[in-house]
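Page 37, continued from 36.
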């Protein structure tokens, strides 16, 4: 039986990946108005990794990593932060963002299928019901906007699905993989590796590297929050949960994040919050309950 402190940490970690990651939609929207996507991600993950290593060192944690752990960190760092983050954003050039969100909501389904294939875990009926409710809720949420399928839409759809499959595989893989036991150290290595790879891609694409000294006030605040909360807190919580609870429960963040983003958009950017959006949010959260509840 988990101790009270362990349960409290798990609850706080879920709050982090639900609420904080949900807020990153808004923060990235602000930052990307001035900064190129891959440069933004590289800078964000570099700063977050330095902070993580600093906190780990100050708390007496060893930063040592074996060759096997380093190779595993390269794999999951690439799938989570380089491909899952950078390529997903690039795919939005080809398809509507609402349609992309609908495609991304299939992640828990891929997680369950991969857990069945790789670990032989039986798929519970409650989890299937939860996933179906999640997809229905997501459809209601994004179907209010006109889904624009422009030129090369098929390329965008394929890229989104490969991102979702890659993120799902990494989620399942890291739950059993040999990575540094300390979650600060583990997340730090994933981020600094991702930052290096994202910088190479940014240079290859010819993105402009804009000095932080000339960023606007809003972009500076957005980047600060992305680094400290979206990077340091949420990704550490994510890696912690993958080792503590079943992977399909962690994947429910893909249902809750759009609800949080919707509410923040309404509150901060004065975006419309319709009755259909509220109904969709309720259905999404009921789906999450089916997947996460034990009884």
């Amino acid at each position: 039986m988990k101790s009270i402190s362990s349960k409290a940490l798990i609850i706080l970690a879920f709050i982090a990946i639900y609420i904080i990651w949900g807020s990153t939609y808004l923060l990235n929207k602000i930052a990307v108005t001035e900064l190129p996507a891959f440069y933004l991600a590289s800078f964000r993950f570099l700063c977050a990794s330095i902070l993580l290593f600093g906190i780990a060192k100050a708390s007496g944690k060893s930063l040592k990593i074996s060759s096997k752990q380093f190779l595993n960190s390269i794999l999951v760092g690439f799938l989570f932060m380089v491909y899952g983050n950078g390529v997903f954003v690039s795919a939005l050039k080809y398809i509507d963002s609402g349609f992309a969100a609908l495609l991304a909501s299939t992640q828990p389904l891929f997680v369950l299928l991969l857990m069945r294939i790789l670990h032989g875990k039986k798929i519970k009926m409650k989890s299937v019901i939860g996933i179906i409710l999640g997809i229905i809720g997501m459809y209601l949420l994004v179907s209010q906007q006109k889904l624009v399928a422009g030129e090369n839409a098929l390329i965008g759809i394929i890229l989104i699905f490969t991102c979702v499959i890659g993120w799902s595989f990494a989620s399942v893989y890291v739950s059993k993989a040999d990575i540094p036991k300390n979650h600060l150290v583990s997340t730090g290595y994933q981020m600094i590796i991702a930052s290096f790879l994202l910088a190479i891609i940014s240079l290859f694409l010819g993105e402009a590297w804009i000095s932080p000294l000339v960023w606007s006030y809003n972009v500076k605040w957005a980047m600060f929050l992305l680094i400290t909360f979206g990077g340091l807190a949420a990704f550490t919580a994510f890696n912690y949960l993958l080792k503590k609870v079943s992977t399909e429960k962690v994947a429910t963040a893909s249902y809750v994040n759009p609800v949080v983003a919707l509410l923040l958009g309404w509150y901060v950017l004065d975006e419309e919050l319709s009755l259909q959006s509220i109904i969709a949010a309720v259905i999404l959260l009921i789906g999450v309950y089916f997947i996460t509840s034990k009884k």
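Residues 4-292 form one domain. Flag for discussion at group meeting. The radius of gyration is 19 Å.
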